[in-house]
Amino acid sequence: MDSWIDTTLTPDFSIHNLPFGIFSTIGSLPRPGVAIGDKIVDLQALHKTGCLHHLQIPAETLDQRVLNPLISLGKSTTNQLRLQLQHWLSAHHDNPLRHNAHVLVNRRDAAMHLPVAVGDYTDFYASMDHATNVGKMFRDPDNALLPNWKHLPVGYHGRASSIVVSGTSIHRPYGQVKPPTASAPVFKPSARLDFELEVAMVLGKENPLGQPIDIQHSEDYIFGYVLFNDWSARDIQAWEYVPLGPFLGKNFGSSVSPWIVTTEALSKFKVNGQVQDPPVLPYLKENGNTHYDIELSVYIKPDGGREAQVCRTNLSYMYWSPGQMLAHHTSNGCNLRVGDLLASGTISGPEPHQFGSMLELSWSGSRPIDLGQGIHRHFLEDHDTVTMRGHAVQGTVSLGFGEVTGQILPSLPWRG
Amino acid sequence: MDSWIDTTLTPDFSIHNLPFGIFSTIGSLPRPGVAIGDKIVDLQALHKTGCLHHLQIPAETLDQRVLNPLISLGKSTTNQLRLQLQHWLSAHHDNPLRHNAHVLVNRRDAAMHLPVAVGDYTDFYASMDHATNVGKMFRDPDNALLPNWKHLPVGYHGRASSIVVSGTSIHRPYGQVKPPTASAPVFKPSARLDFELEVAMVLGKENPLGQPIDIQHSEDYIFGYVLFNDWSARDIQAWEYVPLGPFLGKNFGSSVSPWIVTTEALSKFKVNGQVQDPPVLPYLKENGNTHYDIELSVYIKPDGGREAQVCRTNLSYMYWSPGQMLAHHTSNGCNLRVGDLLASGTISGPEPHQFGSMLELSWSGSRPIDLGQGIHRHFLEDHDTVTMRGHAVQGTVSLGFGEVTGQILPSLPWRG
Question: Do A415 and B162 touch (CB under 8 A)?
């Protein structure tokens, strides 16, 4: 299958992908679109031509600055919409997309926005390699994993208000930190600013309070996935996090890629995860392929320098699957809502070049990370730009997530 | 000052209070109101009489199921509205409230709803007595407080989706628990279900991402306060919470009182808190009275039995003030939004009858809590109803929060 829109230079947005996002052009309001090659299908404009009539999509769901109302129509509708677009974009005969040129917007002319209003954002800790690395560095090299880790996908609630779309700059945060040799904490800009390579599910269906989601039905609830950079201030986190978990070390900003790649587009890339030993409790037992084979990479671009790859790993290294995270999250009756984000936690692989954070790559600041051109890093410096990318390939079928990028700006003068 | 509406039987809703909430009557949609005695001023109906014209409140802010749009107009508007109502409700001459009887709804005819759409909910851990009790029980009796505790108000992010209004029943949650003698966890209904007595601030003004709030301006951002019961499953919490904090042990439900008591109504009850030693860092230093003198009490009503008081404490026992929580939360640039809740964490006092949770009252299940009538509890049993109340008195001026109540229902048959 191929599109009559050329996608050879933009393989992420192939005919097999068709991700959903929110875009705007000069002089127009943010609205829903679907990406193909270097174009965006303007869903609002397409709807106005009347050709989506058979899908029974209310016009007001497309007259919105977020995708929540459209997604809330359910997969029966959004899947049909995506398949209809796929048909029109690949069919060589005349069809509404071919003879309504105005519904195809150039991506280079569009600004991208946060694709959903996020009600709640949950962050998991689902990579065994990451949890082991952190445990070795901060606790006990011989007992790196805590006793609960292999029995449940450990997670915690993050901050929804500070989730921003790719391209948004982040100011280096101030915070309380306690140097190891000091007797009392000091308040100053973070000196151990980090990224975390993650992938987040975007919820597409709610469960009522009190009603858990059966793991066998978990895919019905996951609209799609985005890349997620959970910026972290390691020095603030280290001082504050006992006993209630990370707070100000994490909630000053998290960046998402603007295009939501649907669960259906990713279905071709499902693989099995590693064997879970000890076996999980029945409510976490899953059938079939549970994981995704998606190549992930992270790049740092120093101010005025060239982008250097610092991590290359794969989503299939995760110990816990998306279905397990969803089933565990709701096992106590906790209700999820459309637009909620469930992030994986840092995705690391077993090899040192597969570590998904600078904390691990520099082994807590003890080993320099080589960016080439004679430049090294332990943690992020002002004006560094971090970019994450994700691609999946299966035979002749490929797609990608685009990217999530963000630059670190210096701390603002203190005015709190 | 007194009202021509009799408030002697409902002293919580005196002329000095005038809290804001969302109510509905049979056949009508939820809408904003202000409580006085056994009445509610229907703000939508009052606005339609034209008598609020001088306050420039857009009609659409009152045509809403939540208070966020009204609160977003700012304190200059909502304070004026409250003072205007106070004037009309206390003035004996003819005025719009006296000659428009239809704008006064009987509270007994109204159903109350969640007053705000909560964007993010943060829970602090700001009572030293509570933190010390928990530290003694679970860590080290001689070093109950962790090193960071007196330097910053420890807090974490909670779940916004499962916040419910007073009167909503909560099903006993399932979860993973690990009995001390077992080698592996089991999945079953919680056997250590608890309440937590808390008070939550409702945010009334946002700060942009990256811009901390100066502690001297913190009151500008706090619209008001509600009672908050942060239901907790101690057995689920104990197994899951290391290292990222509480998750499923807390996020199956949190209950709020329906009426938001404004910061201005509470200003008469400000007192100073205890001396903070060691002194706090400059960004947490505050002038004037920082705390509130509010009596708080908790009651348990067994199925078919009488309500028994199990806790009587005071908000003034808190170590950290509301202003300190707000300033710390935003010190890294974290943005707060209108409707966000910042809860205090369990409010305990120094005496055993002042402990704000059953975990402390029963000392981790080792001491029975006497409910009278020969009934005892260690933790909550099915069909128990928990009610929390709050009152403030200063000379002839008094007001209260009404109550937050909720009943525990048995676990639903497992269907996850």
Answer: no
Tell me the CATH number at A86: 2.30.30.230
Q: Is the residue at B130 inside a domain?
A: yes
Residue A409 carries which DSSP code?
Answer: E
Contact criterion met (CB below 8 Å) for A381 and A302: yes
Write out the residue range of the structural domain in which residue A19 sits: 11-113
pLDDT (tens, 9 = 90+) of chain A, 416 residues, equals 899 999 999 999 999 999 999 999 999 999 999 999 999 999 999 999 999 999 999 999 999 999 999 999 999 999 999 999 999 999 888 899 998 999 999 999 999 999 999 999 999 999 999 999 999 998 889 989 999 999 999 999 999 999 999 999 999 999 999 998 999 999 999 999 999 999 999 999 999 999 999 999 999 999 999 999 999 999 999 999 999 999 999 999 999 999 999 999 999 999 999 999 999 999 999 989 999 999 999 999 999 999 999 999 999 999 999 999 999 999 999 999 999 999 999 999 999 999 999 999 999 999 999 999 999 999 999 999 999 999 999 999 999 999 999 999 999 988 65
Residue B4 lies in a domain: no
A242 burial (CB, 10 Å; 0-12 / 13-18 / 19+) is: middle
The minimum CA-CA distance between A371 and chain B, rounded to whole Å, is 28
Extract the tokens encoding A134: 């952190």
Active site residues of A: 130
What ipTM describes this predicted complex? 0.97
State the nearest Cα–Cα gap between A86 and chain B, in angstroms.
Answer: 35
C-alpha pair distances (Å), A122 with each of A239, A337, B396: 22, 12, 47
Cβ contact, residue pair A156, B245, below 8 Å: yes
Which of A121, A138, A148, A157 has the highest number of chain B CBs within 10 A, making it the mutation to test binding with B?
A157
Interface test with chain A among B139, B157, B205, B207, by most A beta carbons within 10 Å = B157
Nearest to A243 among B146, B213, B330 (CB): B146
**Rg of the Cα atoms in chain A:** 22
How big is the A-B interface in CB pairs under 8 Å?
Answer: 218
- CB contact (8 A) between residue B333 and residue A173: yes
Which residues touch B350 (CB under 8 Å, ≥6 apart)? B129, B317
Residue B74 lies in a domain: yes
A416/B215 touch (CB, cutoff 8 Å), yes or no: yes
A331 with B239: Cβ contact below 8 A: no
SS3 per residue for B314-363? EHHHCCCCHHHHHHHHHCCCCCCCCCCEEECCCCCCCCHHHCCEHHHHCC
Interface test with A, best of B133, B332, B337, B414 (most A CBs within 10 A): B332
| Catalytic residue positions of B, numbered | 130
Residue at A6 is within a domain: no
Number of domains comprising chain A? 2
CATH of the domain at A372: 3.90.850.10
**Burial, B304: exposed, middle or buried (Cβ in 10 Å; 0-12, 13-18, 19+)?**
exposed
Q: Do B187 and B324 belong together in one domain?
A: yes
**Token pair listed for A323:** 């279905």
Which candidate from A147, A158, A252 shows the least CB-CB separation from B333?
A: A252
End residue of a domain, out of A113, A135, A160: A113
Average pLDDT over residues B403-415: 93
What are the chain B neighbours of A282 within 8 Å (beta carbons)?
A: 187
pTM: 0.97
Would the CB atoms of A335 and B187 count as touching at under 8 Å? Answer: no
For residue A332, give both structure tokens: 């106590």
Residue of A161, A239, A327 with shortest CB distance to B120:
A161
> Do B285 and B353 sit in the same domain of this protein?
yes
Across the interface, whether the CB atoms of A185 and B148 are under 8 A apart is answered yes
